[in-house]
Amino acid sequence: MADYEKLVWxxxxxxxxxxxxxxxxSEPGAIVITEGKAVIDYSxxxxxxICVKECPVKALSFxxxx
Length: 66
Description:
Layout: E1 4-9, H1 19-23, E2 31-34, E3 37-40, H2 50-54, E4 60-65
Antiparallel strand pairs: 1-4, 2-3
């Protein structure tokens, strides 16, 4: 299996502000704020990186997964 980048978020520092949800250009529901934390639907996320750039607390990042 090839390595690939996947959007991940750090739940402990996520502020639940919703900036990632509002800035996401993917299908509605790719990122939603649920119970004060971001939840990513990987089937809708196109890994464009806009939410990573917009997150004020840097809770979102891309990690290479094997």
